[in-house]
Amino acid sequence: MSPTLRRVLGKLDRGGPPAYAQIEERLTEAIAVGDLKAGDRLPPERDLAERLGVSRMTLRQALESLERRGLLRRTVGRLGGTFVAEPKIERDLTALAGLTQQLVRQGHQAGARVLSSDEGPSGQRTAAALGLPVGAPVFEVTRLRLSDGQPLAVERSLFPAARFPGLLSRPLDGSLYELLEREYGAIPRRAVERLEPLLAEQPVADLLGVKSGAPLLLVERTAFDVSGSALEFARDVFRGDRTQVRVESRLTEANLVESTLPTPSR
After folding, report:
1. Would 260 be classed as within a structural domain?
2. Terminus-to-terminus CA distance in the chain, angstroms?
3. What does pTM read for this prediction?
4. Residue 259: pLDDT band with limits 50, 70, 90
């Protein structure tokens, strides 16, 4: 066992939180600060449990939780074991940028495989989001997004057909935002995004390479240009074990004024 693991996996505090929670917290901290790095292999469960003075069932409870959170990955077979997972992809909602740009910025290779591209009438929700009459034609592009060749998300984007004639005949395996800007002069400037957790169901689970019931993150987005016209309505489903969301909040002047007002007595 490495010196790092000996330090991290010392005896537990018997008067503290439950043993599995202490193990999970210690491993989480070791991964966060870089003591344990992506690809590092943990010792066998029997050795870890003995080192910590806990049952294998207690240890497994902590490891399974860390696996669900995407911090560890476990494989079976002769070369199997428990490994520190690759860092999660950060989905930054602070600035408007396509997934391709965000992946490249984080040092990953972005990829996309077109699953389908069709034209059809807009439903009520799509029409409302894009500011169109119900039934107006829209282009629907569904893609599997890849990070370093591995499935990350299933994107379903809808665009007003009248504004982007010939869109489906263009290359759709790169950045769609760059395509809209280059071919149509349409530049996304603002987006409204809503996040919702959900559980994987087939066939999305198969596309993302996860088990049925695995945690996913739904991001519903409407993107607008500088004039306020809607360019895109999208529903993207990300792997929960490979994605984290970053949001930066600021206190506005109005908030500052409100926070300094005296609290009314009751």
Report:
1. no
2. 61
3. 0.69
4. low
**pLDDT per position as a tens digit, 141-163:** 999 999 888 899 999 999 999 99
Same domain for 43 and 102, yes or no, is no
Residue 230 to residue 127: CA distance in whole angstroms: 10
Residue range 73-87, pLDDT digits in tens: 888 777 788 988 877
Cα-based distances in Å from 16 to 6, 123, 153: 20, 55, 39
Given the structure tokens 């506005």, which residue do they identify? 252
Candidates 200, 218, 220, 219; CA nearest to 210 is: 200
Q: What range defines the domain where residue 112 resides?
A: 89-246
Q: Name the more confident of 228 and 242.
A: 228
Extract the tokens encoding 84.
């520190």
In a domain, 151, yes or no: yes
| Residues 138/121, Cβ–Cβ less than 8 Å | yes
Q: Do both 101 and 17 map to the same domain?
A: no
d(Cα 45, Cα 37) in Å, to the nearest integer? 19
58 & 93 share domain:
no
The answer to whether residues 62 and 23 touch, using CB atoms and an 8 Å cutoff, is: yes
Do both 163 and 206 map to the same domain?
yes
16 and 69, same domain (yes or no): yes
Residue 233 predicted with pLDDT over 90: yes
Residue 8's CATH number: 1.10.10.10
